[in-house]
Specification:
This protein has 218 residues and is α+β, with helices and mostly antiparallel strands. It is 16% helix and 30% strand.
Length: 218
Amino acid sequence: MLGLLLALVLFGTSPPAATPSPISDAEIEHECRTYFKHAVCSEALGTWLPTFLSSFDPSNRNVATRGVPADVFVFDHEGTSSKRPEGGTFFVYGAAGPPRGTIYYDPAHRIAFFAQGCCAWHETVLTETKTPPPVRVRETDLRRVHTKAGVTLGMRAAEVMKRYGMTRPQDVPGHPGFEVLSYTSRRAGNDPRDACGTDQNFVMKNDRVVYIQLGWAC
């Protein structure tokens, strides 16, 4: 102990800081309920949400077709209304700057639609799922949901490019066998004059769309 104190005096070093204990899911959810009284606070739901592009940003790479206008999802039979169904489940997860959003699930066809965001990013996603969500959420028929340009789950890459323009399929890191077709409104990558923009990403498996992400970020 005397040697450690002497070293501190002579060299001005500090003793190693204690590693903080990780916050448990139960603690995060309890804190969430304190601030979000009417939300489903679920770390399990946050883990379950399909996130093909969490570590891959096509819009700031030379892999996205640029200058493509923003798109929206439509829900009505005529394909003109972007108003979502009533009664979506409001959810929150995460400890710092928690993402929050609304989710719907179609159990008959194993399709999920969710919109989430925080701070300077937001996304809406239509996706196939392998398993149902780990908590009860609003159920509705999602078969007819598609982008206003006409893309829906199950379409081929050629059909996507017919609507949005030519682009080069890219492998999705961490997801062998999946590719993504990417489009963005940004006309240059990492340009501070064009920091904000919209993105359309279509994740493909065996040449079929399985995940559609329409995003906005700065």
